[in-house]
Amino acid sequence: MTDVFESSGLSMKIFYDLRGNHDNFGVSEVGGMYDYFQKYSINAALGRAGNVHSVTLQSSGWKHLFVAIDTTSDIGLRGPTNLFGHPTDQLLETIDSELSQWDSESIKLLTKTSFGHFPMSFSAVTESGRSLKDLFLKHSLSAYLCGHLHTRFGKNLKRHYSSDNSHSLSEKYFQFNIHRSPPNHGTRSENCTEKAKTPKEFWEWEMGDWRKSRAMRVVAIDAGHISFVDLDLVSGPRKTIILPTFPLDSRFMQRMSSPNEYACESLSASSYNTIRTLVFSVSKISSVFVKIFDSRSGSFDLVLAQAMKKQEMNNSRGDLYTTPWNWKALSDPSPNRFWMQVEATDISGRSSFSHLRPFSINGLTTKVDWKWKEFLVMGCHMASLYHPIFYSILLSLLSLLVIPKALLLSSRKNYKYKNFSSYYNERSICRRIVAGAFWMLMELSRMTAVWCCLLLYVVYLTFFHWLSGHIFTETGTVGYMTRKGWFLKSSTGQQSFVDVPEVMVLVLPHLCFVLLPTILIMAALAAEKAAFHDYYISVTAKKEDDLGEGSEKFAKHATSHGLLGFCWSRWIRKILLAVCLVIFWTHWKSCWIILKAYDANPAFYSPVYCFTVPVLLIYVIYSTTGF
């Protein structure tokens, strides 16, 4: 950053840096030995104290309020259980106060923008159940800019929030697409009176990471509307950066109030009369052209190509170019019929282009679908989903163990393979699968010792601690983790509890990808042995007590017959053993991560967590070897 100050000539005072979870790994005390942010950050060098700061800029009659928030915990656990922002009720009161500072003056030309490290999906709620989302909706922010996620999750890490469905059950947990409501839903009923209720809304724009993706964002505010351009600098610096500021991108920048503003002409005519773009360049720009395309025919047909003129009376950091246009002729009920691109050419003849993007003069929004990874990290509120997911998995595990055992004990039937074989003649694939799964679980419940150990292990993971370790530094405080969070001893010797959803990164993968597959694979191994045993008896036409006597004869008989020889090889068992290797690898990988993260020797700090699954699995493999 010192190089940036020196090369740009910009004052250090206009820069603001913000903590994230990586700045807080293993920080046991504010200002301590490992609190590098307090030693090396710009904010620390300038003496900026506190977790909330704001500044107001004024331009052309507008007030632009910027509020920076730091929701990182004062002390931070070592990774991977340090993943969420943790706003407190007191912090939300401070943020509310900063966002309200101009409300008493009835200023109409006001934008509110906030920025922080954590997106809403990775921000926990306070002890009273309040959230940053509710606060931002209350103030109807123009935008919330954030980081934390990485570009590998996708490039559409953006989300629009509105209060129209804020009381629905799903609102607390997830949103399936960038817009909760269908784009432009309800925009036909314009209300242009002064008492018309403005919808509560805000945009959340996550921008990716600089660390590996070299992602950078330039933001501009034009007549109250925020626009931005995202840059990928992996291949090197850009000679020219183009940021169109009007018309807005109809995918990510339109608001629910935009159609009403268009219908009621609440914006000044000058706001619509010109196309505007900012151009940043290391070389002198010789010409700037804007091109507008019509996509109604299925291809991009050029309908406007016009030169833009540089505005000399411009106080922005980039050069502002404008051109008049007949915007009324481009009014259309489709939000993505018209597309725009700006081309800038410098004095050396090198041309640069902006991204081709749709726009809607009517203020309508183009629907954009998330990919599954984008939905996972932006559409799901992880902190709220943790407990419902945990209890759902817990109920599933207990059902897999208890229901077959209870049926086996309460029924006089001796449920075996032949009792379920009739289901395999069913046309319904679902009934076959259910019957097969239930039979396998019945066979597992016959292995009483293994069944009891699995049940006790599930109960143990529910009520007792999973692991222990040094949660701050290699030689620092030792705490232990339960499915609720971390317990640790304070300096006074008393135990304190850190209720953090971060433990989900250890709890849920273990339940979903280790314990659940282990139960199913154990059941499959037990069922495979039982099925082969029944098959052996049927072929030899002998009683079970004659099994040992006829085994050698049966082996020769099976080898001499192709199909029987194939069955004798127990190829299903070999597949199951391969799956066991995958489970072993997944589990030990998790144990290795814990060992490195918390210096937790498995033999002393987490024996039950680390060894129960491998020991039981090895025992089941051994006990199902024979027939």
UniProtKB/TrEMBL annotation:
The keyword Signal is assigned to this record: no
Gene3D superfamilies in alphabetical order: 3.60.21.10
Domain Calcineurin-like phosphoesterase, chain residue ranges per copy: 16-151
Domain TMEM62 Ig-like, residue spans: 237-364
Keyword terms, alphabetized: Membrane, Transmembrane, Transmembrane helix
Transmembrane helix keyword on record: yes
Protein name: Metallophosphoesterase
Organism, scientific name: Acorus calamus (Sweet flag)
